[in-house]
Amino acid sequence: MLRVAEGNAKNAIDGDGLAALLPSIQTDGVLLDAWTSAASTDPTSAIVAMTKMDPAMTDAISPRVSVLAEHIARGRPTAEEIGRLLQIDPNSPFAVTVWEGLANGWPRDLTISLPEDSQKLVRDRFLAENTSVESKAAILAVADQWSVENLEEIVGEIQDELLTTAMDAEAEAETRLNAWEQSIRLAPNSTKILDAVEEFFTPQLPPETGVEALRSLQAARVDGLSATLLELRTSLGPKLGSQILTLLLSRTESTEDLLDAIAEGQVQFNDLQLDQRQALLNHPTAAIATRAETLMESRGAMVTSNRQTLVDQWMPVTKQEGDVTNGIAMFKKHCAACHIHGETGNEIGPNLTGMSVHPKEEILINVLDPSRSVENNFRTYQILTVDGNVLSGMLAGESANSLRIIDTQGKEKLVLREDIEQLSSSPKSLMPEGFESSMSKAEMADLLSFLAKRDKHAPLSISSVATINSNKGLPGFRGRSGDKLELDSYGRVEVESIPFELIDPQGDRIANIIGLQSSSPRRPSTLPESVSIDCSGKVQAIHLLGGVAWAAYPRFKDETTSMIVRLHYSDSTTSDFELVNGKHIVTYQAGEDVPESTLAIEANGKQVRYLKVPADSDKELTKIEFLKGGDFSIPLVFAVTVEFAGGGH
């Protein structure tokens, strides 16, 4: 298949032959990727063949149909190619996927003229009475680029039918939302949307359904939508009210409408969440950002720019004994949307489970001045698209053709580079400034007491020092990829009664393993030779998930030092614990063993091991440093947990 993809055997297999291979490879991701590459040499034939397959395979291969359809669209198809796609059955379970894929990838500057026989197929087959409304809506979303005549009346009829389904309060939420989204994509400029919004969004609407429906409205382009939503906002409850403001901030024109509403007193800055205010100040359109800043200053809504002075004013809070129970409530209210602590919250920003190893003073600084020290993973990016959409969030990944952004609600959005009008990054953290306006000093004391509360064990966050993404794998040689180290699950795990936090790599976005390597002129390395994690308190042991390395026992049998764990104490002394190849360290390939570490996790033919490093519990620990030993192995650390002396406090 790779030879076909490279064009070396293009005539070796046709679309029917490729489709016939799918049942035997549908569960193998690697083979499916190779298959998709081969099919992309003649995607039209492959799609036509796939639509004739057993409907039971719909879920398994629909993503491949979508990819190929987008590929066709981005290749600027001819009228002949579209005519070949019109051979498919209008009611095939893949038909909607084909047309939606074409619509998603269709170049905005491309219009083709279908010959009359193809136009007749569109009208007589794909818009026939016995064709499902979903299939009709899907093809109409792209058919306006095909110069098909006399579609306006049909579009109106189908939009009415879709909106009727969306308004049916007795229907399943998924059915209503699908119809709602299709009705908007079908005719985004239709004034019918305004009446539908007023009818759909009622106080009885479940918030979860309303949030998804509001996201679909981002595709709407009808005049008056902002005013309609602002009128409804106060009658829908806080969750939907806030989501309406998020929607208005997602487009340049509606952001200007929102600022008009603020200037007229219809909306107060206090109605906006901190991240929404920050989105205004960071807006990629300079005129909007300047106007927002001016309005905030005139309304007294600007947060102080002198964060150090603010920190100094609040520092006495760290001496107060807060209420841990209320601190948990404060965490859930103010932090859990983006952070996780133990089993509570969402892992968008850094994991806060191990914050108890830091003093309250340091935690307070992180809360009040979140941009003082920002990991690259959590910097904010703003994108303005050529359609006027505004996206703000963390960069999740990029390729030659696209960027992926994760917003403050944890939603990932793909943006094609050709659709980007402006891209900018900010030194600011995704976590907004201004939390001092959201809680009292007593509540802050409660939050700090909760975050600083020490149990016997505290899993540490290694996100700021991790160097390898387990899904990408180890650095390879001469540009080749190295071994991947994918685990079956991430998050909280317990090994020998010790809790650990395994960082989710979130695809290829986040480094989640510490890897160290020596560098030399003959063997340059992209990995560091040492990393450090701050940790305060009296600790009796450091527990590690690691104990494995590249170029380790049994292939290399010498008892060399692979890694050193160096503990730094407050009296400026240090102690070293050497992890030795063949004793503590073994290859990460499953099935091999050494005497002084134990198997903890086995997944995908790889292993992670557990070992314990003793510490001097009479001294205050300040830092844990991991240093590369003298051999040429690459030792790996997946998670670190400290055990406090005396069981914590």
From TrEMBL:
It comes from the Bacteria. The keyword Magnesium does not apply. NCBIfam families: CxxCH_TIGR02603. Keywords: Heme, Iron, Metal-binding. One of its GO terms (molecular function) is heme binding. Transmembrane segments: none annotated. InterPro entries: Cyt_c-like_dom (IPR009056), Cyt_c-like_dom_sf (IPR036909), Haem-bd_dom_put (IPR013427). Residues 322-455 form the Cytochrome c domain. This is Membrane-bound dehydrogenase domain protein.
